[in-house]
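Re: beginner question about structure tokens

> Can someone show what the tokenized structure looks like for a real chain? I only ever see the sequence side.

Sure, here's an example I had lying around. Input first:
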Amino acid sequence: MIVDPLRLLVEWLSDPATGINAQLAAVPRDGGEPAPAAVQFFHELAQPWVARGAIHRDALVSGPALILRHTQTEHGFTAAVFGERLNADPTLVPFSLLYASLRVQDPDAPADSAVQVRDARQVMRAAFRIIALRFPSPQTAYVRNSCVVTLSDNAPVFDAKYIDAGDSQVLDSLHVELKVLDRWALAIT
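And the corresponding structure tokens:
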């Protein structure tokens, strides 16, 4: 119930023609501003450190990254973002997409925190668009391995809360709920 919608998100966000890096040059911005740098893409089905909820510093050495994982629902951040509706409907599956980069350690380094934040916001704007394009109407559904996946009625949530992860940082995040009807698990024919 979680693996198949996660794989759909991975396919959409990492697609070379329509995915996140393909969209970055088209993100509207003020004249003279460069497009955000291409990002790496990591997810919990391929990287053990993502599955553990960690941020691996070595993965960020070559540049910023988007990190996709299923959001834990027991308590904490997810409960604060999505509230009680998670417990009301077991078919709602929340995912978090994080924009992470190395934290600038050297105060004389040329990297500009304001530019990093601007780029993070623009990358997340592109990610939001990719998901919105996949669900042009409330009736849009995808079927993967007997899971019927639709966008929940709840709008995706941006969270600009800075998260310090040692020598790494999360500058922005997008949280989206997908509604998943697992026909196989529910023995629906």
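Each token stands for a local structural state, so reading them left to right follows the chain. Residues 3-182 form one domain.
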